[in-house]
Amino acid sequence: MSASTRRRAALVPYAMLAPGIVLFALFMAAPIVYTLVLSFQKEVVKGLGLGSGGKSLQFAGLENYVSAFTDPEFAASVGRVLVYGLILVPTMLGLALLFALLLDARRTGAKGFSRVSIFLPYAVPAVISSLLWGFLYLPAVSPFYWVFEQLGWEVPSLLSPGLVVFAIANIGLWGGVGFNMIVMYTSLKAVPQEIYEAATIDGASEWQIAWRIKIPIIAPALVMTALFSMIATLQVFAEPTTLRPLTNSLSTSWSPLMLVYRDAFTRDDIYSAAATSIIIAIATFAISFFFLRVVQRRAFGQED
Amino acid sequence: MSTTLDSTSTSAIVQREASARRREGRDRRAVTRHRVPVSVGSTAVLLIGAVYCLMPVAWVLIASTKDASELFSTFTFAPSTHLWDNLVELSAYRDGLYWRWMLNTALYAGVGAIVSTYISALSGYALAKYTFPGKGVVFKVLLMGVLVPGVILAIPQYLLLAQVGLTNTYWSVLLPQIISPYGIYLARIYSAAAVPTEVIESARTEGAGELSIFHRIALPMLAPGLVTIFLFQFVAVWNNFMLPYIMLGDDRLFPITVGLSGLLNQGATVPAMYTLVITGALVSIVPLVALFLVLQRYWRVDLAAGAVKA
C-alpha cells in the first residue's frame, strides 16, 4: 500500500462521520450555543424605541437568570410539573411493573391480547391522545359522568382547576404505561428460567418469587424507566397545549415549556425564554447524569 | 452486576429479545406438558389494564359515527349512523386539507426517519469498526446529545432557520429531526455486535472499497437493528408536536398533530368542528395502529439473525 492510499484510508471514518457531525453541529450544537448567547443579552429601548436605531442589544449578565428564578409564574409552573410528576411517575411505573409481572407469571391468561392492548397507546401521538381524553373528560360526553348522574352523585369535572393536573397525568399514564411495561417485561424474560424452578422447588410462592427475585433482578430497568419518565415529565407541552381549548383551567404558563413558548412568541422576549430554556436543560442534565454513568460503563464491552 | 446493568439500555433489550423469544417457545412447550390452571385474579387485573387502554380508541370509533347534535346528547358508547357523512365532511374541509396533513405527516416521519436511519448507521458503523484519533471525543459529544431534550432546541432552531429564511418550509421540520444521537448510539452497538471484523478484513483483502463494504456487507447485516432505529425515529417525528407547531405558519404544511390541534381550537367557537376533529383523530390513528400491529415483531429484533455465524 502506498503512502497516499494509506492516508486516504485514514480519512474514511471521518468521511463516514461527516454527515452526522455536520447535522449535529448545525441543529444541536449551534442552537445550544445560540441559546446561551441570547440568555446573556437583553434588548434596550432608546428614546421612544421607534425606527431601526430605536433598540439595541446589551450584555445582560445574569439578569435574565435572576428574573427567571424570581418569576412567580416560573416557580408556579415548576411546582405544577412537580405535582404532575409525583402523581404520574409512581403510578405509571407501579402499574407497568404490575402488568409486566402478571405477563411473566405462569398462571395469567389472555397474555397476548393484554400485552398488545396495553402497548397500543404508544402508537398514538400525545396530541391525539390528549384530544381523545379531553372529550372523555367533558361531563356531557364522559361515560363516567353518565354513571355518576344515574347515581345522583355530584362529581366535579376533571377539567376544573384543582383536578386538571390529574387529567393531564392520566393522559401521560395512558400513553406511557405500555412502553414501560414492555421494557420491564423484556428484562424479566431475559432471566434464566432455572432460577425460578429452583425457587419453586424450595417452596417459594409466585408472589415471593416476584418480590424477592424478579424485582431485584430488573432493578436497573426500573431505574432507567424512572429516569426517562422524570425527564419526560419536565418537558410536558403537547398535552396541556392540546387541552387548553376545552377548559379555562390551563394558563399559557401551565408548564415550564409552555412558559418558554409564550415568552418567545407571544411576548417576543426571546432573551428570558432562552434563560429559562437553559435552566430546564441544566435540570434535565442533572437528572440524566446518573443515567449516563450507568449506561456508559457497560455498553461497549464487545467491541474490537 | 455488570450483566444486569446491561439490561438498562433499550438497545440491550433488542439483544435480549432473541433469548426471550427462544424461551417463550420453551415456555409454550412446558405448558403443554403440564397445564397450569389460569388464575382468575391476575387475568382480571391484566384485562382491566387492557380495557383502560382500549377505551379511548373504542370511544373515538363510536363517536365518529355520531353527528354534531348526537355527540353531546346520546350515551357515550351508543353508536350512530353518520360515519360516512363525517368522512365526506372531513374530506371536503377546505378542499381536502386533512388529507394533505396526512401526506405531510407521512413525509416528515417516513422520509425523515429513513434518512435519519441511514446517517445513524453510517456514523455508528464508523465509530464501532474504525480506530482513529478523536473517536472518543466524537462519541462522548454525540452521547451528550442523547440527553439534550429536543423540545428545548426548537426555539433556537427556529431563530437560526429564520435567519436563512427556511422557516415555514418542509425543510424546517425535516432537517432538524434527521440527526439522532440515540440512533447513532444504537447503530454503534448493533455494528459492534452484528458485523464481524473478520468479514470486513476479508472483503478488504479482496480489494473492496470501504464504502462498498459498508453498503454491500454491513448494511444487510445491520438490517434488523436498523428497522428498530427507524421505528424509534418514526414514532419520535410523528409524535413531535412542538417543532412543527413553532416552525410552520402555513397550514398546508402542517402535520396531522398540529392540524388537528388547530381544528380543536376552532371548535371552542364553532362546536360543529368537534365532529371533524373526532373523525380526523380516528382516521389518523388507523394507519398508525395498523403499521404498529404489522411491525410489532420488529420491536423485538433478533440480532443473531443478521450476523454471520463463525
TrEMBL record, chain A:
Question: Where does the record place it?
Answer: Cell membrane
Q: Pfam families from the xrefs?
A: BPD_transp_1
Protein family according to the UniProt entry? Belongs to the binding-protein-dependent transport system permease family.
Which segments constitute the ABC transmembrane type-1 domain?
78-291
Q: Which residues cross the membrane?
A: 12-34, 81-104, 116-138, 158-183, 217-238, 270-292
The UniProt entry's GO biological process terms, in alphabetical order, are:
transmembrane transport
* One GO term describing the cellular component: plasma membrane
UniProt KW keywords: Cell membrane, Membrane, Transmembrane, Transmembrane helix, Transport
Going by the entry's taxonomy, the superkingdom of the source organism is recorded as Bacteria
Identify the InterPro entries for this entry: MetI-like, MetI-like_sf, UgpAE/MalFG_permease
Q: Quote the CDD domains the UniProt record gives.
A: TM_PBP2 (cd06261)
Q: Which protein is depicted?
A: ABC transporter permease subunit
Q: How does the record classify its membrane topology? A: Multi-pass membrane protein
Automatic annotation (TrEMBL), chain B:
Protein location:
Cell membrane
- ABC transmembrane type-1 domain location is 102-295
User: Which residue windows does the record flag with biased composition (Basic and acidic residues)?
Assistant: 18-30
The molecule here is called: ABC transporter permease subunit
As for membrane topology, the entry says: Multi-pass membrane protein
Q: GO annotations under biological process? A: transmembrane transport
Instruction: List, alphabetically, the GO terms of the cellular component aspect.
Output: plasma membrane
Q: Which SUPFAM superfamilies match?
A: MetI-like (SSF161098)
Note whether Transmembrane occurs among the keywords.
yes
UniProtKB keywords: Cell membrane, Membrane, Transmembrane, Transmembrane helix, Transport
| One Pfam family this sequence matches | BPD_transp_1
| Family in the record | Belongs to the binding-protein-dependent transport system permease family.
Species of the source: Agromyces agglutinans
Highest taxon in the source lineage: Bacteria
Provide the residue span(s) of the region labelled Disordered: 1-30
